[in-house]
Amino acid sequence: MRRTIVAGNWKMYKDTHEAALFVDAFLDRLGALPAGVEIVLCPPFSALFAVGQRVRRTRVRLGAQNMHWEDCGAYTGEISPPMLVDLGVDYVILGHSERRTLFGETDDGVRRKTAAALAHGLTPIVAVGETAAQRDAGLTTARVVAQTQAALEGLPAGAVAKIVMAYEPIWAIGTGRNCDPEEANEVMRAIRGAVDGLAEAPILYGGSVKPENVAAYAACGEIDGALVGGASLDPNAFAALIASASVPE
Ligand code: PGA
């Protein structure tokens, strides 16, 4: 049985004070949330320490939004896998479409980062997704399968099974236009078939997930949770979303 995960990607929002206020309010609601859902908070680098201190003795896991693949070196502005481990980070989002589109991240970079994360005991959340134009041209499956194979190239199936994938149609991110759950489910089936070992790996849906629509994704057989942007910024909305994200028995 694959685990269910809800990860909140705060992107470039919240200073340390705002992050602390969020966590304090969110932890008040934690006891009422379904035990079967793994909860991950991915604040900006600057708030990792503050959030990590607060969630340390709770079931909430800490995630980062990016990292470099090298352990150390002359890479101004970068953060390494051992630095994330040092902060108590368990998860790291890799290959988010904003990284790929706005910061020139390549498939090869995502591959190096994925291998480095695994080598340091971090769980990569590898994001793939198609643009609106690719979808309109009927290229969704080809695109996400190619991104998935590129990111996981060279990894043994046992390592692949430790990865978390995220399918995030780019046209659905931050737009309020979420992908039809059945359509996302079919794309995820293709992702799962793309690389040996992914049958056991959780795949999250991302793109305008809200408390009101998350249950429809959770009910789909291939979907194991959500990667959430906007709705993870408010502790009440994020708690409500998690409450509706557990797989129906
Ligand atoms: P959104 O972002 O939930 O605001 O659409 C999702 C993401 O970028 O991971």
Comma- or semicolon-separated keywords:
alpha/beta; 8 strands; TIM Barrel; binds 2-phosphoglycolic acid; 249 residues; globular
Mean pLDDT: 97
Oligomer: single chain
H-E order: EHEHEHEHHEHHHEHEHEH
For the termini, the CA-CA separation is: 13 Å
Q: Largest sheet, described in full? A: 8 strands, parallel, barrel
Q: How big is the Rg?
A: 17 Å
Count of helical stretches: 11
Give the overall shape: globular
Supply the helix-strand structural class: alpha/beta
CATH classification class: Alpha Beta
- Percent of residues in β-strands: 15-25%
* Total domain modules: 1
- The CATH superfamily is Aldolase class I
